[in-house]
Design a protein that fits this description.
- It contains 19 helices and twelve strands.
- The chain is globular.
- Strand 1, helix 3 (109-126) and strand 2 form a beta-alpha-beta unit.
- It is α/β, with parallel strands linked by helices.
- Helix 15 (402-425) crosses helix 16.
- The chain has a domain at 66-335: Alpha-Beta Complex (Spore Coat Polysaccharide Biosynthesis Protein SpsA, Chain A).
- The longest helix is centred in the first third of the chain and has 48 residues, at 43-90.
């Protein structure tokens, strides 16, 4: 890997951040000391905190497992890989060319020009020619790109090919661009960079990525560190900072098993031979799932999950490059809350749709740790809600004083989790515990809602697309059944949590019968 600018960031120690974290834990300890002395005096209260303690040990053990694995990957496995890459680069190795597959749809012209500049800059640094195949959805994007590239003077050749999509959707644009690449002769081990029209590569991004394909012949794809540049409210920036810190931690952990859980659509790099065959392209264009309730339905978004699943089926190895950085530009128009919920609906739906079929591949084919990570995603959406159900239920059914412990429990558990995220955010941010808890609760509720409504999809990007083609025949019956199953699962979950934590009376069945007699 070439010596480049944009070296890994050091931890940004700020005294006001340290003071804020210190104050945070002072308030937490003061709150705990101020609790009533007999808060644990009843067997039921002890049962609640004992049950939550066991759950906490399990979940924190899982977080620490990811943290330790991430440290091993970063400091040992990837550190060795980077040294070997630097030596390979110093000996003069370069790919013959680099191909870019870029999709864009009515993008902000300033953003498009910045993305093009980052592509040209990376090619100049590599010193190799490039071919840019653009799947465009509108003539305005093509005009901006053509005009800007006409003004760029670079010592390397960049061939540009436009492919105008005739049907809506990013998947169609990707499929057309990949078919165009195949027609113009791109193939073999040529690196193909999948790039969104709002993603900027930081200096040296590709110089760190490309040698991995030469050093590890079994690796067919890799993805990189991602950060957000938000043009909107600070709360949106905080939320994305948190999510990308979580992503950075878990991606490093997953990569220790030579797999990742998604090949991020913002920027991932593939071997040409892995993505230019008909099976791969068809999967991206027409990916679908068969559901017992809704029948067969197509995926709308989640193209990055489709590419990942296609390679996962083949047993391909994947890597994460933790010091190759891409910035994604997020522009917020309209309600912050609506944007957050829509993003969670899209991301959670993609996770559930692809996770179910990935689990069916089995631990032997996927690898046990990665397989269990996929399973854990489905468990976590329930376990995250156990705490509030137990404490709020205990406060309503046993002792109102238990309600006071709820915010302290949130501060304690999410404060510890945030401390594991700070090294991957590269600074302390006292807002993380609160943003983390909101994100976990909102994501859990949305995942449970989607669990029986997998075909219901909406993508606010690219023309506010909606996928309701599976909802036509028998819609009312299917919708009723989905609501019934959701209510049933939530009821069983709440009853189970209250029963296991001892929140219910000694005779829970009699309590349920009495409750039903009251309202029926």
């Amino acid at each position: 890997m070439a010596p480049v600018s944009g070296e890994p960031e050091r931890f940004d120690w700020r005294w006001r951040d340290v003071a804020g974290l210190y104050l945070y834990f002072v308030v937490l300890v003061a709150g705990i000391l101020a609790l009533p002395a007999d808060i644990l005096g009843t067997p039921m209260a002890r049962g609640i905190f004992g049950g939550l303690g066991l759950l906490g040990v399990w979940r924190f053990a899982w977080w620490f497992t990811h943290f330790i694995r991430a440290q091993i990957y970063t400091r040992v496995v990837y550190a060795r890989l980077r040294r070997e890459g630097e030596a390979l680069w110093a000996r003069g190795w370069r790919p013959r060319e680099v191909a870019f597959m870029m999709t864009t749809f009515k993008e902000d012209p300033a953003t498009t020009r910045a993305v093009l500049d980052s592509i040209v800059s990376e090619l100049v640094q590599l010193g190799v020619p490039g071919r840019l195949v653009i799947g465009s959805g509108h003539a305005s994007d093509e005009e901006v790109i053509t005009a800007h590239l006409a003004t760029v003077q670079a010592p390397v050749k960049l061939e540009v090919v436009f492919v105008r999509q005739t049907l809506p959707g990013k998947r169609i644009a990707i499929g057309l661009a990949l078919r165009a690449m195949s027609r113009i002769g791109i193939g073999g081990d040529t690196p193909v960079v999948f790039l969104d029209g709002d993603s900027l590569m930081a200096p040296g991004c590709l110089a760190r990525c490309l040698p991995i394909f030469e050093l590890e012949p079994k690796v067919d794809a890799l993805t990189t560190l991602e950060r957000a540049i938000v043009r909107g409210p600070i709360l949106m920036q905080k939320w994305l900072d948190l999510r990308f810190a979580q992503r950075h931690l878990t991606m490093n952990s997953h990569a220790l098993s030579k797999k990742v859980l998604t090949l991020t659509g913002r920027l991932s790099v593939y071997r040409a031979r892995a993505v230019l065959d008909e099976a791969f392209i068809s999967t991206v264009e027409e990916d679908y799932l068969d559901d017992w309730l809704w029948g067969r339905f197509r995926f709308l978004s989640g193209d990055d999950k489709s590419t990942w699943y296609c390679l996962l089926q083949r047993g391909a190895e994947m890597r994460y490059v933790p010091d190759a950085l891409v910035y994604t530009i997020e522009r917020l128009d309209g309600s912050l809350f609506d944007r957050v919920i829509q993003n969670l609906l899209r991301w959670s739906g993609n996770m559930l749709r692809n996770g179910r079929r990935a689990i069916r591949l089995g631990p032997t084919r996927v690898g046990f740790f990665i397989w269990w990570c996929i399973v854990d995603q489905r468990i976590a959406m329930w376990s995250c809600l156990a705490g509030p159900v137990a404490l709020i239920g205990g406060g309503l059914l046993l002792d109102p004083a238990l309600l006071v412990t709820f915010p302290l429990w949130v501060m304690l558990t999410r404060g510890v989790q945030s401390c594991l995220l700070f090294p991957y955010h590269r600074r302390i941010d006292v807002s993380f515990p609160f943003v983390l808890y909101f994100n976990q609760i909102a994501a859990s509720v949305i995942k449970i809602y989607i669990l029986f409504r997998l075909p219901v999809q909406r993508w606010a990007n690219r023309g506010d697309q909606r996928a309701n083609d599976a909802l036509g025949h028998g819609w009312r019956w299917k919708s009723w059944m989905a609501s019934y199953l959701t209510t049933l699962w939530i009821s069983v979950f709440v009853f189970g949590v209250l029963l296991l934590t001892g929140t219910l009376p000694d005779r829970p069945l009699a309590y349920v019968v009495s409750f039903l007699d009251t309202f029926l």
